[in-house]
Specification:
2 domains, 390 residues, 15 strands, eight-stranded mixed sheet, 15 helices, Aminopeptidase
Amino acid sequence: MTISLKIYDKLSDAKNEWERIVPENHHLICCDLMAIEGSNAPDMKFHYVSIYKDNVLSGVMYLQHLTFSQKHFNRNLIQNKILKFASPILNQMKAHLLICGNMFRVNFQGFYFKDKNDRIDIFDCLNIYRKQVKQEVNYCGILVKDCNREFEPTKISCFQFSPFHQDLTMEMAIQPTWHTFDEYVAALSKKYRQRAIKIRKSNAAIERKYLSLEDIKFFQNDIHKLYMNVVNKQSLALGILGSDYFIQMKEQLKDNFEVVAFMKDGQLLAFSGHIYYPAKKAMELHYIGFDYTENPIYNLYFNIIFDGIETAITKGYVNLEMGRTAREAKASAGAKAVENFNYIWVKAGLPRLAVSFLSSKFQDKMGDEWQNRNPFKEIVPATSQITEHS
């Protein structure tokens, strides 16, 4: 068996070929990828690869090439005496990372094979790709992100990939007994119910508005500034959105994407992105931004979360995906952690030590107090993960 690859840098160049094998409406040929490609994300390139086995098209893989530098992690993450002397090196650091999947989305597997038994080929394909482009770019790490199913460790060890267990996403099951937000609040224990009522009242002076495409264009700079407020608070930001990302998403996804604005006297104080999956009765709370100076007054962050819950309930959805960050806040609202199936290869030496150190620091920063949160009177079971085609 011989594996060969055809590499494209634009989805439009690969689309006709991909449509021969990828199911209709699959996320790897949908408008989401066009929105990401067109948003000019800094430090990110995109590649679309067709996979051939003995000259027969057997699968595809979607790759993101991230040039990782000091701006992608919070400097406070490495403030200790040992690393103080490494600061000049870290300031100049540029590492090339290859992601099979989508850094900007959740549950977005980056490969598809016509024969499901060929899924294990993904690791061989990535190694072939790495060697094929080595003269142009020398990758120090490869991440296979958001796999729909778990691979047996014995089947991947020969490829020098290993499971990466630190990637959790927070999901919330919308209970069938909740027809209104008030019914959700009534399901909370006394402590959390009083807290929710207080938070919602603090938001009374804020105007909530769905932004049209023209509105998003008008507030483009404000939206990006508020988004970057959140990014700059994160320990690690693997992938930063381009300034016109939300415009591209609205243009491509239309009614299945909304930007919710939270405004006071015509000023944008916060926003939240919503992605809708009507066929699955699911919704994703997709990127947010807010003014940290106004947050203590209006509880903007928690009201963004509650607004997402209310929207999911109103639309009759059963699952709300809340993303990876701020686990304690989301657990306090009723979300449960779901582990994603990720696999990683890191070049031996300094890159492997750096990944190990940053991963450890990131976990320390996240803490584990969120695991003890259960805001409901009775335990509400976690929903199953939103899945795409394999």
